User: Fold this.
Amino acid sequence: MQKTIAIIGAGLIGRSWAMVYARIGHEVALYDAFPEALDKSMLLLDDNLADLEANGLIDGASAVRSRIHRADTLEAALEGASWVQENALERLEVKRDLFTRMDAIAPPATIIASSTSAIPCHEITDGMAGAARMLVAHPANPPYLLPIVELSGADTTSAETLAGARTFLENAGMAVISINKPVKGFVLNRLQVALLTEAFKLIEDGVVSGADLDKTLKHGLGLRWSFMGPMETIDLNAPGGIRDYLERFGPAFEEIAREQTEFRPWTSEKYARLEQDRRTVMPASGLAERTTWRDRRLMALTRHKMDAAKEIGE
Ligand SMILES: NC(=O)c1ccc[n+]([C@@H]2O[C@H](COP(=O)([O-])OP(=O)(O)OC[C@H]3O[C@@H](n4cnc5c(N)ncnc54)[C@H](O)[C@@H]3O)[C@@H](O)[C@H]2O)c1
Assistant:
C-alpha cells in the first residue's frame, strides 16, 4: 500500500533512504535544514537512480524520481507522513531537538525513526510525550544498496511500533534485525569498531600496510562475508563444525584475544597518520569518483546475488 514518507536530513543517508522508499512506490518528502544541502541532494538523486536503472535494479528512474518531493519546512515534510526517517547530524542535542519538534507536528499514528549510528534510543526519546512511537532504525551506508537495518527501541517504545516498523521495512526490501538491549553502536558498528581497532594497531605497529590490510578483507574474509556471517563461516571451517573449529584453533585464538584487549586511545595524531597512509594510496581528489565506483560495484554484486538466489531457489 502506498504511503507518505518524510525524510529529515538529506545528506548521504537521507538521500539514500528516499530512494529505498520511492522505488517501492511510496511518496517521499525530503527535507533539510540547509536549502543548499537539499538542492545538492535532489541533483545527486538523478545520477544514483540512473545507475540503478542501468544495473536492472529499478524499472524506471524517472517514475521513482517523480515520487521524491522537496519539502522546504519540517511541517511540510511531515504532513500526512506515516513514517519519518531522521538523518540529521550525529549529535544528541540536534536529534533531541528535532524529535521534540517532530513529536509536536506529526500525526499521532506516525512512527518516527532515527538513523543514528551509535546513540541508544532512550537518550534521544527520554521524556517525550510520543516516546511510544519512536525508535532507531539504523542502516548501513548506503541504505539503497545495503539492505541491513538494526531496529532498536527504548523501554518506552511500544511493541506495536517495533512490529509495525519491522513490517514496513521488510516490505521495503530491507533485512531487519532486532537489537534486544540498549547498547551504544548497536551490533553493526560494534563489530566494525572491533575490526578497525585491530586494523589500526596492526598498521601502527608496522605489521602490515593499510593497502595490504585492505587486500586481506577484499580477497579473503570479505568474499565470504558478502553472503554468510562469521558464525556460519567457522561452522564450515572444520569438518566437524563449530565445536571442532574451536577445539582446533581456540587455544591460539584465545591468546590473540587476550593480547587484543590492550586499549589505545583514538587521538588526532592517530587520525593524521591514518589519513597520510590512505592518501598515499589515493588522493583526496579521487574520493567522490571512488564512491561512485563503490556504489556501481555494489549494484553489480546485488544483481549477482539476486540472480544467484533465483538459480539456487533461495
Ligand atoms: N555515513 C554513514 O556511514 C552512516 C551510516 C548509518 C547511519 N548514519 C547516520 O545517519 C545520520 C546522517 O548521517 P550522514 O552520513 O547522512 O550525514 P551528512 O552530513 O551527509 O548529512 C546530514 C544532513 O543533515 C542536515 N541537517 C543538519 N542539522 C539538521 C536539522 N536540525 N534538521 C534537518 N537537517 C539537518 C545537514 O544539512 C546534512 O545535509 C547520522 O545520524 C549518522 O550517524 C550514517
Residues 66 and 189 are 34 Å apart (CA to CA).
